[in-house]
Each structure stands twice: as structure tokens, then as C-alpha cells.
């Protein structure tokens, strides 16, 4: 996989710390959180019959979570959906290495949330970085929280 470059906004930012592995990780985590918190509109637009709509910007993000009940949601199906979204819209992660795994934890602090671990490899200039993140899909407010 080819090394990814920073986004244009990050290149132009006054706070840019180009080259720092910690900065790359912080930016990647931020962008994954933005991706997963953006609401996909494909279900509203009825685009299922159009083959290329799944990987288009019309399908960027997750469907709204605030209307679903966690008991009725299959965590494995949701994990596959999240993996497909990250594979489609996060080019800095090697698609062959991305795995999303539901976490079963009886003592989790988020009562109305489903936890997932995300694993993958990010190619940085001159290096590869392993990415291990935990996300919580919080049904109480319809948001996704990413923990580094």
C-alpha cells in the first residue's frame, strides 16, 4: 500500500506538526470519528438499486443510529457495515487489514451503546503504523465515540 499524505486542511493548518507519528494518529482518529458520525443519506434516497452508490459520497457515513433499539441490532451485521464504510471512505488504512469486531463486555460504562474494536494498518511516509481503536455507538444521542 502506498503511503498516505495528510489532508489539504492539515497541510495548511497553523497547528500542523507534519511528520509526527502522534499527529498522524490524532488526525486519523479524528477523521474516522467524523466519518462514523456523519449520517449516510442513501437509505433516505432509496439508492439500493444503483450499484455505484454504495461507495459514492451519497453513502458517506453511518445510517442514523438514534432511531434503532440496541436489542434489535445484530452486532456482527453492524460490524460488517462499519468495516465496509471504513474500507470505502478511509484511504489511509490498508483495506486488506481492516477488521471491526464487536466487544462483549458486561461491565461497559455505556449502557445504551455497542462497543467495537477496529484494527488496521496505516502506511505513513517511511513507516507503517498499526491502528487499534475502540468505538462506542451511543444510542442515547445517536453519536459514535472513538477511543484511542
TrEMBL record:
It comes from the Bacteria. It holds the Pfam family GPW_gp25. Residues 27-121 form the IraD/Gp25-like domain. This is GPW/gp25 family protein.
Amino acid at each position: 500500500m502506498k503511503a498516505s499524505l495528510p489532508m489539504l486542511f492539515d497541510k495548511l493548518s497553523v497547528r500542523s506538526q507534519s511528520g509526527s507519528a502522534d499527529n498522524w494518529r490524532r488526525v486519523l482518529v479524528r477523521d474516522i470519528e467524523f466519518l462514523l458520525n456523519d449520517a449516510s443519506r442513501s437509505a433516505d434516497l432509496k439508492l439500493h438499486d444503483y450499484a455505484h452508490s454504495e461507495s459514492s459520497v451519497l453513502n458517506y457515513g453511518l445510517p442514523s443510529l438514534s432511531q434503532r433499539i440496541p436489542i434489535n441490532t445484530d452486532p456482527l451485521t453492524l460490524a460488517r457495515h462499519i468495516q465496509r464504510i471504513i474500507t470505502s471512505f478511509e484511504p489511509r488504512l490498508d483495506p486488506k487489514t481492516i477488521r471491526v469486531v464487536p466487544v462483549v463486555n458486561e461491565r461497559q460504562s455505556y449502557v445504551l451503546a455497542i462497543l467495537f474494536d477496529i484494527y488496521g494498518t496505516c502506511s505513513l511516509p517511511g513507516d507503517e503504523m498499526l491502528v487499534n481503536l475502540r468505538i462506542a455507538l451511543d444510542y442515547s444521542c445517536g453519536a459514535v465515540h472513538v477511543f484511542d
